[in-house]
Hints:
The structure is a single chain. The chain is an alpha+beta fold. Helices cover 62% and strands 15% of the residues. A seven-stranded mixed beta sheet has the order 2-1-3-7-6-5-4, sandwiched between helices. The model has no long low-confidence stretch (mean pLDDT 83).
Amino acid sequence: MITYWNTTNGLKSIDQWQSNSWIQVTCPTEEDQRILEERFEIPDYFLSDISDNDERARYEYDDGWMLIILRIPYVKEVRSRTPYITVPLGIIHKRDVTITICHYETNMMIDFVTYQQKRKEGFTDYVDMIFRLFLSSAVWYLKRLKQINNLIDKAKRNLDKDIDNESLIGLSRLQDSLTYFITSIRGNENLLAKLKFKLQVDELDADLIEDVNIEISQARETASIYSDILESTMDTYSSILSNNLNTVMRTLTTVSIILMIPTLISSFMGMNLVNGMEGTTYGFGVAVLISISLSVVTWWIFRHKRMI
């Protein structure tokens, strides 16, 4: 879907493209890509690079066109293998043409449009718009990180009651999401550092860049902290599981040894050999009494040594 926005005085939707307007492309179809290639003569490999989910944050120039790929957060289903991932947002610019392309409908872009409409100021130029997209991405990373932290706390509360596989798998999936976030945030941070010297930055842009740097640094540090906490939590519960397993195995071994004593006594008493109790009616009782006595003594020894 292609949407045209007039950015002169606020953000207003228009029916067709005008010079210095913003072209927003969301989940582009083949027809949308054909329009971009034929009408605006955008290099086709720019579009293919943006469609690659694994494309890293970077910028590139070709025949006057500038391509910037920014990694932004995206939420899949909570029960999916990796609920929180990052996807590429492409920013393409040349003279009076500014285009953003994303193959996912993200809350970040919806919020970005809504917020800019509330500001009623629009963008001073394409540089201002680019850095505001950086700022919005950093803010949304922080929002998603708070959601991840809430899910971690919920899983930990469940694990405090009962250590089950579902909660542990959920923590493992959140660890994967944090890894994606940390990698993407660092990529965006490095990209921002390069663009500061490549784009025509004025005094207002410099103030905006400072805000972006603060938000990105906070997002990176927060993601790293949550990742360290989650890793420590996983190690703790892994140790608890190992300790519980050792306790169970020790108890089973102790019980096996105690039960082995009556078996050993009955085996001796039941041998077809002379043992002095062949002709007495008390032989069975004596064997039972010896088995019980030795089992109790063995149990007391294990109990004294805290093996059960």
